[in-house]
């Protein structure tokens, strides 16, 4: 099974845990045994449980590539978008990547899925059926529609020709009001959840008819010139040969705190105490200070370095315009080598905690406008500055002047405090080099 997982979105609907760098699919709120896992980890585990031979490619923005590598290691291939251009360019780029870089044949079927639904394994068994239907070639596109549980205003609708498990598609409808949605349900309508399958050759032909490009590399190089357009508008709504597979099972779009609290592993995560009078209240606390809740009812309380949210659960669905007024830098970032947590920001300085996984290393880079002072808190590592190597132990302090190329390798798990000093401290002040 060839699967493209779309993981390009960002946003703050799960603020203060999600931000422009840390999307909701990387927040670890689910349980697998005694360990927490994120959406992307859960989805990868579920797909490979259903099909151990599945080839999974994650289509994502460059800001998320490090987090994916951090959480999945080298298990999944990653197709990185140079910039955001909506779902059709992302899928076209991923299709060219599968063909040119992964060697997938044009006759093979590919399934495209979002990375963020909360489902059980029956969903991915249906995804495998979707792939088999596309492989059979009876239609150019095969969609999976979700059997609705209520007349929702949040989703677009697929109107099938019949109520059978597999049916030809009659038409598509935009997000309706509740009364219109009720009429759609009378026509055996399905929620359109953006899940579809096709033969790779079909999609490449469509991509070439819309975009002038030679191959994957050419498409990658001109990606920033592409028109922003969704896959639905560019392909689905113009295709006459479409069938839909009806999925009847648990499916939740956990895009808001209100929905997330329904599927969270536990009522609380982090240092949190609920007294006996609290009802239907969830707390997620990433700060190293306790949160005490008393008499709270139907509430979500979340705290991180980016801020604190205290909200009625239902009201939390409407926080977007307020969060957009809050301007802060991301205080927690997952890198391919570990994590980066901002501790303090002052004029002329920023203090961060760096936690590196054993065997990982940063890029070889330099900064023009700041110097850095590293203090090793625990573990063993190796610093390389202008080609010179030095072994680091707990308690060691090393200063890297502005303009000096440097990196650090973690021999064991390594924790350091990094103090950045300079009049101009910016993530843009970083130049990468090949190792000397």
Description:
The chain is α+β, with helices and mostly antiparallel strands. It folds into 3 domains: 2-253, Alpha-Beta Complex (Spore Coat Polysaccharide Biosynthesis Protein SpsA, Chain A); 267-323, no CATH class; 337-433, Jelly Rolls (Sandwich). The chain has helices at residues 39-50, 62-72, 87-100, 121-136, 178-185, 200-210, 216-221, 231-234, 257-263, 320-323, and strands at residues 2-7, 30-32, 35-37, 55-61, 77-81, 109-114, 117-119, 141-146, 156-160, 166-173, 190-199, 242-247, 251-253, 268-269, 272-274, 282-285, 291-293, 299-304, 307-312, 332-335, 338-346, 349-356, 364-366, 371-378, 381-385, 388-392, 397-400, 406-410, 414-421, 431-433. Strands 20-21-22-29-24-27 form a 6-stranded antiparallel sheet. Strands 8-11-9-10-12 form a 5-stranded mixed barrel. A 4-stranded mixed sheet has the order 14-16-18-19, with helices on one face. The mean pLDDT is 92.
Can you tag this structure with a few keywords?
436 residues; 21% helix; single chain; five-stranded mixed β-barrel; alpha+beta; globular; six-stranded antiparallel beta sheet
Spatial order of the strands forming the largest sheet: 20-21-22-29-24-27
- Indicate the proportion of strand residues: 35-45%
Largest sheet at a glance? 6 strands, antiparallel
Instruction: Give the overall shape.
Output: globular
